[in-house]
Specification:
Blueprint: H1 2-10, H2 15-39, H3 58-74, H4 82-99, H5 102-107, H6 118-135, H7 156-175, H8 179-185, H9 189-197, H10 205-210, H11 216-244
Amino acid sequence: MQNWFVREIVETGRLRMFCFLIAFIAAFLFIRFSVRMIRRQARWWPGNVTPGGRHIHHVVFGMVLMCVGGVGGLVVDEATSGWAAGTAALFGVGTALVLDEFALVLHLSDVYWSEEGRLSVQVVMIAVALSGLLLLGLRPLGVNDTVNEEGVPGAPWQVGLGLLVNLAMSLIALLKGKTWTGLIGLFIGPLALIGAVRLARPRSPWAHRRYSEGSRKRRRAEVRDTRLRAPVERFVDRLQDFVAGRPD
């Protein structure tokens, strides 16, 4: 295991991303456990931080840790050192605390246990997925491709055109309300193409502008959303409630 870790993580320059992702997941699970214990009013759990009667949300601690870990990482030269791993982990913890209250920051209101608060869990899941792809060595839009005489799959203008097409397909997928397809499509081009050519979700910006009320495409989109998307959303909601707690 140690040889594999050194060969696949350290020597490939992924140590900081590995530490970031592990710390991110661990911090998110811990803070969700903490807030659920506070919600249950468990006597054995410390509870909220309320100096002088003011409730300090954990997004504040997250921002501080992100600043310390981010700036600390900038001054570390050796990417495989313990300091590099530590600052990356610190940045991961801070990021988890901030994104766990993403909905609160977005709405500027304490919507943590409301339906709007589900957005925070969705953002965390997306962050974990994208970080996992980066840890696997994938790069958005293929930016890890090098332009040289030996390794380039075509002339530089062809590579640039391919990147622009990939970006355009991902943006179209996002406009069609396909968040996961659009974001992961930045890393996997064919997935972005699939999201771009398929019907938009009925409540997406694309459908609002291009599918008129009562049109055939609008009806097809609504039927497909009800038949295919609704069961997936119910499953995802149950999974989120299991991990993060059910909204009020």
